[in-house]
C-alpha cells in the first residue's frame, strides 16, 4: 500500500491540524456563508434572545471541532510508531475524525434547537453534508502539502548525506543514506552497518537509538525492534522461523536476519 508522509504524525503537524482545520471552518462560515451551512447554524434562532445566533453557533462548532481534533491528533501522535504507515489507514483515521466532529456538532445544534426538525439524526446528517464536506478541503490541502514536502526532502530518492553525532553532539560519521544497511544498539552505543564500495563495514558511536531515531525517520529508515533500525531499501525478504519469530533478510553478513517484533511488523511489511 502507498505510505503516507511521516511528517503528518509529528508534533508540529499535529498542532497545525488542531489549529488550522477549525480556523478554516470558522473563517469559511463567517466570511463566505455557504447557504446550507448558514441554514444549519441558525439552529435555535427562535429560542435565543441575543443577536447573531449564526455567528455564535459557528464559534461553538469551531470549538467543538478543535476539541475533537485535539483528542484525535494527540492520540495519533502518541501511537505514531505503531500506526500502520499506509495512506488508506490514514484516510480512514481522517474520515473518523470528521464523522466524530459532525456527531458532536450535530448534538450541540439539536440541543440549541430543542430537539425539533427530526432530532439528532437530522442534524447529524446535515452536519455531515455541510460541515463534513467543508472540512475535507483543509484535510486534502494539508495532506498534499506534506506529500509534496516529503517527496522533495526524502533522502532515499537522492544521494543525501546523513550526519551522525555522539551524545556530546560531536560529529562522528557522515555517509549517504542509501549506504546504510541497518543500525543496532549495544548498551550505550549504536553500531552503524553500511556499505562502502560493495563491502560491509561498521562504525560504533556513543549515542542512543532514541536520539538518532528522528534522523532515521527523516531518511525513511524503519524501526524493527527496540535494538534495530533498518533501511527498507536493503530488505530482500521478510520471513518467519520455526519458532514463530519474524526476521528481515538484508543479504548482508548478519545471516540470521534482523529481528522484527510484533509491534513493528505491520509498519515494516507496508513499506515493502
Q: Can you describe this structure?
A:
By secondary structure, this protein is an alpha+beta fold. It folds into 2 domains: 6-153, no CATH class; 158-269, OB fold (Dihydrolipoamide Acetyltransferase, E2P) (Beta Barrel). It has 7 helices and 10 strands. It has a 5-stranded antiparallel beta sheet with strand order 5-4-3-7-6. Strands 8-9-10 form a 3-stranded antiparallel beta sheet. Strand 4 and strand 5 (199-206) form a beta hairpin. Helix 3 runs antiparallel to helix 4. The mean pLDDT is 85.
In round numbers, the mean pLDDT is: 85
Work out the radius of gyration.
24 Å
Which sheet architecture does the biggest sheet show? 5 strands, antiparallel
What kind of oligomer do you see? Answer: single chain
How far is the N terminus from the C terminus?
9 Å
Strand order, main sheet: write it out. Answer: 5-4-3-7-6
How many DSSP E strands?
10
Instruction: Enumerate how many helices there are, as a single number.
Output: 7
Q: Helices and strands, in N-to-C order? A: HHHHHEEEEEHEEEEEH
Shape: elongated
* Helicity range: 40-55%
Q: Tell me the domain tally.
A: 2
- The amount of beta strand, in percent, is 15-25%
The low-confidence runs, each spanning 5 or more residues with pLDDT under 50, are: none
Secondary-structure-derived class: alpha+beta
Amino acid at each position: 500500500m502507498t505510505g503516507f508522509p511521516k511528517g503528518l504524525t509529528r508534533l508540529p503537524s499535529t498542532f497545525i491540524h488542531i489549529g488550522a482545520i477549525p480556523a478554516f471552518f470558522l473563517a469559511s462560515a463567517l466570511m463566505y456563508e455557504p447557504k446550507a451551512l448558514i441554514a444549519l447554524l441558525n439552529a435555535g434562532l427562535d429560542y435565543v434572545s441575543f443577536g447573531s445566533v449564526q455567528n455564535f453557533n459557528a464559534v461553538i462548532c469551531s470549538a467543538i471541532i478543535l476539541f475533537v481534533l485535539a483528542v484525535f491528533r494527540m492520540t495519533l501522535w502518541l501511537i505514531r510508531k505503531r500506526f500502520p504507515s499506509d495512506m488508506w489507514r490514514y484516510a480512514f483515521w481522517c474520515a473518523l475524525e470528521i464523522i466524530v466532529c459532525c456527531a458532536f456538532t450535530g448534538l450541540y445544534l439539536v440541543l440549541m434547537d430543542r430537539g425539533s426538525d427530526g432530532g439528532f439524526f437530522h442534524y447529524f446528517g446535515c452536519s455531515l453534508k455541510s460541515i463534513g464536506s467543508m472540512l475535507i478541503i483543509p484535510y486534502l490541502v494539508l495532506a498534499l502539502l506534506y506529500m509534496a514536502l516529503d517527496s522533495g526532502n526524502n533522502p532515499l530518492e537522492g544521494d543525501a548525506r546523513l550526519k551522525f553525532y555522539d551524545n556530546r553532539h560531536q560529529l562522528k560519521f557522515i555517509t549517504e543514506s542509501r549506504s546504510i544497511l541497518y543500525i543496532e544498539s549495544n548498551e550505550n552505543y549504536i553500531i552503524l552497518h553500511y556499505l562502502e564500495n560493495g563491502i560491509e563495514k561498521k562504525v560504533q558511536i556513543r549515542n542512543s537509538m532514541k536520539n538518532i531515531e528522528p534522523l532515521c525517520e527523516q531518511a525513511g529508515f524503519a524501526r524493527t525492534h527496540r535494538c534495530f533500525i533498518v533501511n527498507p531499501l536493503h530488505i530482500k525478504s521478510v520471513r518467519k522461523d520455526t519458532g514463530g519469530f519474524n526476521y528481515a533478510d538484508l543479504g548482508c553478513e548478519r545471516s540470521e536476519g534482523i529481528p522484527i517484533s510484533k509491534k513493528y511488523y505491520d509498519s515494516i511489511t507496508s513499506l515493502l
